[in-house]
Fold these 3 entries.
Entry 1:
Amino acid sequence: MQGGVVVGVSFAYLGILFAIAYYGEKRAEQGRSLTNNPYIYTLSIAVYCTSWTFYGSVGRAAKTGLDFLPIYLGPTLVFVVWSMVLIKIIRICKVHRITSIADFISSRYGKNFALGSLVTIIAVIGTTPYISLQLKSIATSFNLLIGFQNPELPIYGNPFGIDTTLVVAIALALFAILFGTRHIESSEHHEGLVAAIAFESLVKLFAFLAVGFFVTFGVFSGFGDLFYQAQAHGLTQLYVVSADNDYGQWITMTLLSMAAILFLPRQFYMSAVENRDETHLRTAAWLFPLYLLVINVFVLPIAISGKLAFAGTANDADMFVLTVPIHYGQSELALFAYIGGLSAATSMVIVASIALSTMVCNNLVMPLLLRWKLVNLSESGDLSSLLLTIRRVSIPIILLLGYGYFRIASESYSLVTIGLVSFTAAAQFAPAIIGGLFWRGGSSTGALTGLSLGFLVWLYTLLLPSFAQSGWLPLNFISDGLFGIAWLKPYALFGLEGFDNLSHALFWSMFANIGGYVVVSLRGELSPIERIQGRHFVDVYDDTLGQNDSRSWQGSVTIASLQELVGRFVGPERAQNGFLAYAARQNFTLKGDEIADSNLLANAESMLSGAIGSATARVIIGSMIKGENVSMNEVYQLLDETTQVIEYSRMLEVKSAELEETSLKLQQANKRLKEFDSLKDDFLSTISRELRTPLTSIRAFGEILLEGQNTSDKERQQFLGIITKESERLTRLIDQILDLAKMEAGRMDWSMSNVDPTSTIEEALAAVDGLIKEHNIKLILDLDKSLPAVRADHDQLVQVVINVVSNAIKFCNHPGGIIRVSSRPGDNGLLVEISDNGSGILPEHRDFIFEKFHQSRRGSNQMPIGTGLGLAICRQIISFFEGNIWADNGEDGGAVISFEVPFAR
Amino acid sequence: MTYSVLVAEDEPNIVLSLQFLMKQAGFSVRVAEDGDRAIREIEQQLPDAVLLDIMLPKRDGFSVCEAIKGNPAWSSIKVIILTAKSREIDKQRALGLGADAYITKPFSTRDLVARVSELLQPNEQ
Amino acid sequence: MFCGAILVLLPPFISIYDKADFIFGVPQAFIVIYGIWAFIILAIALGARRRSMRKTPAETALSPISDKGDS
């Protein structure tokens, strides 16, 4: 085929991709997202299928039969437990605005910079062989297609007069730069990219199926014929996984691919970071394994047909997908297959290089620049272009690394073997991530140790030998071990023999990795931030935790300078929009010269996280408000770990005068913490007691009635009445506890509106009318009907009046009770007074009656029994309305409870 | 003979149920709504057993228990603590003061009656 | 489910069906492995349909952390 045609088609294909990406982004800007559906999401995860799948599986199947399958069975197994692992990772990525796998690990272990950069380095080095695999496949397939009739054409050397692989690498680098680094996103969703990758997944699937159909039904007449003919040619060893019952590599490959689907940087990026909606996973969980199954159905048939077509000649089995159609004179089909292979390879290279460049920028370069003070935050200037430059420079470097590995090692290895080297590197992330998801005790030093050890073992047992085999290192390094020491042989470390290279490397690297992680984690102490992050990750579903530990920020930065800082990373316009949106939600007006509060700081950090990763974001915000980051709130978060805090503060005390102030703060916090803790404890035991009291009566009378003997009808009636009343009391109590808990946690759904005071009070009085009549109480109303509306939640305001009046009913004189309800304008808006003619409130109780479970005991049996929560709830509600509630005694000695609510503006 | 039981409890409905259960078991019953009343009732006439709540107004159950068990003339009175406090620390404190039994609310009526009878008539069981 | 799938796909179970014999004109190992695979996918699909998802939090992008309600 003409080289010009192939080059033309290749670039036309890349052009289509670019058009799709562009269209996807335009749609996203108009708010009509193309990618926000589970099918696109599934297809985008199918970036898993690279040219390894497209070409390499067939090559593997032609040599060893069915043992290419674990690479696809492993992911299927992972999706069996999607609801446990994957969904948790996705949730964490969303909540913490994670931008990459390095960001995830560094954020989990206390936003640790060293850990983030180590993960980045491992990811870059580990991905290098994988990228080289894609370059190799594109170059080989290209050369094959244009020079099939000319087999002596060498693989380097080509019509352009330079190395095809290098040309491919440069073209892809340009493409990835155009695709992924056009601007900095603070949300880290690249709709265009996702759309293009999904399209590529369709192309490679159809191309592969087309070849498969052609072979199975065009060349042969169906599966039966194909398998029969192969058998006749003695190819039955391809029909099994393993002819000699040795399944070591089968297990290893299954385990590796399970790790790979989760932790390959591009896989993590596509399935977790770019995920738009957790519910998409529900579809992807079965659709993605189905995609894998479908794309693999024809692997063995193509392999067999290749073996039959080229029997006896030394034809590269890795290229059967291409050479078989050519052999049968189907040059259009071969071209389509080539495009399929191109799509498989480009999707991997693009996503991997974008994911890696984000990591290099956010977790390696920016933190270093900040640390070395090469970037001055206090000067003005647009930093988003700096971020983009770093990413744009790192993409070609990553691709050139891949090209370098290709030149060094690729020649001597098949596609699958190269891929598995990368898989083993990705598996090194498994202990730190899985441990970090389910075990709070994992520490950053533990993760650092485990990752470093595992990575070193990987280097020594897989990467270096691959250099040696291609002659870059002396070969006796493999046969005799390093320095000729036998137990340092990279394929038989410490004398461990009898495994294949891969299982051997996986065993030792995981042994060192998990061992280092667990042992060091168990021996060390966790710092406060590690503990906080550990809780946020492990208990990510627990809504009572705040969403971000950085609530603890406290500083004296003005809103204007904070916005300016964020703007320099994400662009001034985006920053302004973000701040305005935040202000709108929080219902306040942004004033540039005001001091940013801790929530606003946390939001700024969160915006920055989306652009530059959590660790760097923390450093930046931290450097802005330096010296003030040990705040009270941070300490409060450690509620249940009082003792460790004491130790912490003691340590700080020792650290001389500069920390004196901080430690003083800490001590105060400590004291409050202890009070808080005992309050919490008292509160729980009080709740327990309050619940048990009605339960006791219900159970006792229930059992008495159940036994049945010796109870008169009258007694039965009385007992049943008590059970009913106590049940009601229990229900009321539970409702009120829940209400109160919600309000205190700030999670009540308030629907604030302008509320007319008079009709509200009348509505509340109607609700207690029955109770008032029952007790023959005289109700005196003195309502000012001309009052303006107040700003309140109508239902909750009714609740306040009901609670206070119920309280008055309980405490007024019996018989002859009088309750007086009045409303008029007060100093701070609407003033409502509700007084009774009872014996009043003892002065020593006056401060406590609004506390939870404060109950003035009063043994009157016909009264509805109070829960002790009614007035506490009133106080919560009124203070949410920014009003006031207080108690007094009236002139006649009865109690007066008054509250004020501001008028609507 | 008829044993006498003093119920020291401030929650009217629980008092009612205890009164009923003790009478049915054949004991005579008196009631005290707070700690001070309980002590006065005991001073007036020694009961054989006291069913004692802890969270009593005026004088709490711990203090009443201490007063009974610390007085040689009274220490033969069986003290059965009947409380909503379920924490182990409270139980240990009560038993440390000499209480004969510690039953948490809500209680099984059958167990309660069995326990009181057992304490009062050890030989008949 | 996960354990069951692992059990049938890994040794020693695999050696039971990993043979070159033909069933319906297709090698036995080929058809059994793809069959198990398809079955697992079906089971995931059914399971995913039944499962009620935990509620997704609203886009947490800049969501405020409310401290209101504490007086």
Entry 2:
Amino acid sequence: MAKLKIALYWAASCGGCEIATLAIHEKILKLAEVADIVFWPVGMDFKYADVEKMADKSVDVCLFNGAIRNEENEHMAHLLRAKSKIMIAYGSCAYEGCIPGLSNFYDRQLTFDRVYIETPSTENPKKIFPQTKVKVPEGELEIPEFYDTVKTLAQTVDVDYFVPGCPPEEKTTWLALEALIEGKLPPKGTVISHSVKALCEECPRTREEKKIKKFYRPYEIIPDPEKCLLEQGLLCYGVATRGGCDALCPQANMPCTGCYGPVEGVVDQGAHFLSALSSIIDSNDPEEIQRIIDDIPDPAGTFYRYSLPDSLLRRARIK
Amino acid sequence: MDNFEPKIVAFCCNWCSYAGADLAGTSRMQYSPNIRIIRVMCSGRVNPLFVLKALSIGADGVLVLGCHPGDCHYIEGNYKTLRRIPLLKKMLKQLGVEEERVRLEWISASEGAKFAEVTNSFTQDIKNLGPSSSGHLKQSSKEVKHG
């Protein structure tokens, strides 16, 4: 059998997903036996022009990580889609927008103001912002245009599979790669993970009745290592998050932050968590309810930490 | 703006508020035609997702109407709503959606007059606020490249 041809690409991401692809450890040797990497900007010296020269659908699989936030990201998404038989949104950024997607609370100008003017370490008295075209003595330079709104990969091109996680766990990555190597592909659109249920299913903590009088931020308390974190008033996202990671964060006494995305069948992870969370507030008095809610300083940023671009509203409305 | 007729979605619980709307109708009370009623079994059935969905596909305002506290057919469904809506409003505000676009009211089966009054006052509030752009954002963010 001919070797699989794999392309890897990063768009708006932190680089963590690149490390996650390497975190399959010695299994990478097995991957090397059956697959050739034909494009991988972070690890190998290929140019975009090399990809452009490839025949359409000549790449078997593209593992695409990162969100779509500028012209270059979008161009590469379209290019790699055309060249690849299977397109995988690898990691939370490509799947749901993730941390880069939080800039959908702002627009381009607000983001630029923050980055190029307001940050304490920046000195920019002439208020110079990136321009798409600039003339220099050697000629005209172009840089990709920065968009107002961060998009997911599936909002940009047709995507075949999704691998969740920020970054995906080793076993999740391998589950996807194994399916490709063995040619046992799940139905199109599958979110590849060991679980379709909520993370709580695999969390070893003991759960009793959920009734909350006060929410805490992680630095405010040292939680009991055995009891459900949500019952202790921490915003543990497990109830609204797909399992498959073995509840690593709760096992380290930290609440789940929701990086594996919504459970199967849920459209909007943030609304799902909001619904679950507010239902367990232990009060029927409007004033007390308001006081308890005031313990959550940033509900939108917390509930949509990984999924704002993929949510129903997709972004904040800027006046 | 004078001609702006808002689209308003009203989720009415089956046991109280929907019957209240029915009473308003059979009593021939005049109320604003801007609302589109969706009957649900309980206001506790109204997942915040429904409100977001309504806003994202073009509703200018969303009413959630349930039984008065203590009167819920399912004992405490409306208390869940009582806790959800304030948190939802707080979140919507961060997303740039005016919190006045979502309102929770208790309307019993005998309160046809209150149903008419709430509908009218909410419609007026939304008219004053103007059209919501949350619905249009969904379309524009998909294709439009901002230059």
Entry 3:
Amino acid sequence: MPESPLLAVRQLDAFYGDLQALFGVSIELATAEAIAVIGANGAGKSTLLKSIAGLLRARRDAIAFDGVPIGGIPAHDVAARGIALVPEGRGLFASLSVEENLLIGGQLKRSGPWNLHRIYELFPVLAERRRLPSTALSGGQQQMVAIGRALMSNPKLLLCDEISLGLAPIVVRDIYARLPTILGERVSVVLVEQDIVQALKVAERIYCLQEGRVALAGAAKDLTREAIAAAYFGV
Amino acid sequence: MVWINVILQGVLVGGLYAMFAAGLSLIFGVMRLVNIAHGDLIVLAAYLALVVTETLGIGPLASLILVVPLMALIGYALQRLVLNRTLGDDLLPPLLVTFGLSVIIQNGLLAVFTADSQKLHAGNLEVATVRLAEGVYVGALPLLQFIVAVAVIAALQFLFYRTPLGRAFRATADDPAVAQLMGLDNRHVFALAMAVSLAVVAIAGVFLAIRADFDPSQGPARLIFGFEAVIIGGLGSLWGTLAGGLILGVAQAIGAHLDPGWQVLAGHIAFLVILAIRPEGLFPKVRT
Amino acid sequence: MSVRVAFASRSSRVGMALCAVGIVALAAAPFWGGRDDLALLSEVYAYVALASLWNLLAGYAGLVSVGQQAYVGLGAYILFAFAILAGISPLWAIPLAGIIAAGVAIPVAMLVFRLRGHYFAIGTWIVAEVFRLLAAQISVLGGGSGISLPAGLIIAIAPSRQLRDFIEYWIALALVVVILALILLLLRSRYGLALKAIRDSELAATCNGVDVMRTKFLVYIVTAAGTAMVGALIFLQRLRTSPDAAFSVNDWTAFVIFIAVIGGLGRIEGPIIGTVIFFVLRQTLADLGTFYLLMLGVVAILVMLTAPKGIWGLVVDRLGWQVFPLERRVVLDERSAARAPMAATDGR
């Protein structure tokens, strides 16, 4: 366990209206660490990320970032503190060009290693297509824009919600191949994935959610496939 | 030659209608809000200009220096304090609240300024004419008003597509939740959009007040003209809105030429005909 | 033990009984009230009817119109046209106004239904403006300055002024009772369920097989007919019409919307409560002139922001009352073995 966590989620409950989606979830993450949150559909993975990003209500002390409680503060405030979410389904702005999507990610003007130039270096294909509307790109390229847009805010913590969703395996491998570069800039990463194989390659530790609760947590290398499968499917 | 003049007059007035429409179109584009009080805010701007010109003894065009930022400020406050609280999936709250606002502004103006009609005086500018061709003369004021209208549309176009603020407007319109993830505070972005809208309203209001008499009851008709221009031009396209304003102006001018009682009616009929045969407007923005 | 579906509840049985007593008492008003009372009550009935119709349109069908003055004015002008140009008794002209307005509403609906949401609202307003401007062009009906009903036609209704007042009062009362009863029946019918489904979620209603457009179309036509009959009656009582008065957006839409909003949208009781509040405010504050209207606007905005369901919405939430038996509720019942299609709690 990290000693002074960058992110500490403690006993987080989350609701959609009257429906409770998370029950006392606790996770921790150190600076420059990558963790994976896995689980079946509806286990609460996206809910967890949305709560951290400020899109859902949360108890103030349920989420601490850099030691400051941030639970339930507005999403734009969370972003300003250095948490960036790559939303599920990418959430690109349809009426903005590729470059405008990246620029709006950088509009907070936080200083750090990432700028347009570095993003185009990381994803060269985007440089060629920067004038196109974001909707004109392939799924994989759109995902690159979404990641690049999040990095443009120079976050300390990057939350990635199912970046492999709906992409061909070769494209997924291609995108995951860039993650070490991102981690090299001392960015912490939370990967929410259904594709466990990919997640385990990058993440040092994993949390497995099941029906809104943490069913299993531990270092990736210590966990057996059987244990993960059991926590994943709840058998 | 008579008809050329009629159409020319219509085009020049159409610029004013395009200004009525541009502010309406902008806030609809950013936050899907139709401001029923839009016309009354135009009239409010006219009265603000009246107060400014009378207290400072300056001309109506100079008064813009004060009236534009003042209206923008009102727009920002209005959105932050009232209208943001009405936004959501339900259409009724924003509609009813702006409708209530319209009644408040109308009666507030009535209480302060009475129902007497007022006018802003721009001195020589009002009588000066410009010769465009043999037998074709236009007033300097309508011409200036038209040039300003084109400039306003061009400026909005630039703001929307070439500046960080415009980018924020478009992003928030596309997806307000994801826009927040970019550090954009929706409430602030919406309030800025309303501020821009009312800055345009201020310019429109001052020109309206120089061109003709105005009184507190004129707001709804200005709202309707602006709305007609937006729909004729096609939603989401600023140049389309300008074209819509010009078409409305020309239709009204032709109607007025045939019979003075038909001026406004002819504009409405042009609107209804376009709604019947081309409900998406003449120049809709193609969204991919 | 079996289950059956019932409309009535204890509060609604009490409510309906009180309604019946109230209607009888109001019908007897000519025997206990003066001429001013009758005039005021007639006006109250007109606003209850207009607000209830608007509530049906906006609160239930989601068709937020700010152009219902088109039909008030249309009704007035149809009555005056039939009476003055064809010599038809104004009393007969009232139902005719309803029928013709329904016919006019069909092409209008086909046009304005092309506009969505807020734009629909302004579109209806433009239609009303077109009607107003056209009415001003009809020189045989006085053009822009309007026209009065000729004395001969008025006397033909009843020879004495008092009897005429009584007849017109009873028609006003009958009209509002009939309109409320029809709305109640409509909402209890298959269409009513469809309307509530649309009110709660248009998408979900479509998915469950509700023909949303057809239902909305029907409501628009029915509302137009009712509004025109009320309009015809209002201007029969005023004996004079003009384009500005008959197609007034303030009188026939702004006030009506405030009544419906303050009382509570999407509830049949709302417009009645709203009308009472509106008239109490008007009778006590009317001396303030424009400030009264200004305050009305402020009150409407405050209600919309703080209690969007209106006064009656608050009552329902706190006390669970319903005067009009409108909601289906499942009742445990030992006798009947009726089918129970759904437990339609009015979830909003």
